[in-house]
Write a structure and sequence with these properties.
The protein is of the alpha+beta class. The protein contains four helices and seven strands. Strands 1-7-6-5-4-3-2 form a seven-stranded antiparallel beta sheet. The radius of gyration is 15 Å and the shape is globular.
């Protein structure tokens, strides 16, 4: 399944880039994230809890940022497993200057299997989009109102 989105920030690309690679900010904004710990260069072990329909589960996996081209783009590779099933995916994140701010474009694919896919197949796309929207809204809030 394809997942796409576009988000606008009132900040220059470098400031948005710095936020997107700030693991503490990413972990704080990622819905359901319990931990995000480094295990290599730009690679992290992630634990999160998420639910689709009546199926909620804890997932453990990895997130890796590849092909970093600051402050313009990178690729994200995600793999996770939990009792309800598995999630794998990847995508391109692009930053472009736009009217004094920055437009972040996400273009990726996600594959889900196991119980969560069988029970929540029709809901997976909308849940993924909702999580992405929440994530970027949280990042926008952090840029507007730094801690």
């Amino acid at each position: 399944m394809n997942i796409t989105g576009s988000y606008t920030f009132d900040a220059p690309p470098q400031a948005v880039w710095d936020l997107l690679i700030d693991i503490d900010a990413v972990a704080a904004c990622l819905p359901g994230c319990e931990s995000m710990d480094p295990i290599g260069d730009n690679k992290y072990r992630v634990v999160l809890t998420m639910g689709i329909a009546a199926i909620t589960g804890r997932y453990e996996g990895t997130v890796e940022m590849r092909d970093l081209e600051p402050p313009c783009s990178y690729r994200l590779v995600v793999e996770g497993r939990g009792k309800p099933g598995f999630v794998t995916g990847g995508g391109a994140i692009s930053l472009t200057a736009s009217d004094g701010g920055t437009r972040v474009t996400v273009d990726g694919t996600v594959q889900v299997g196991g119980t969560i896919a069988r029970v929540g197949q029709r809901l997976i796309g909308s849940v993924a989009k909702m999580m992405m929207d929440r994530f970027f809204a949280c990042l926008q809030q952090r840029l507007t109102h730094p801690a």
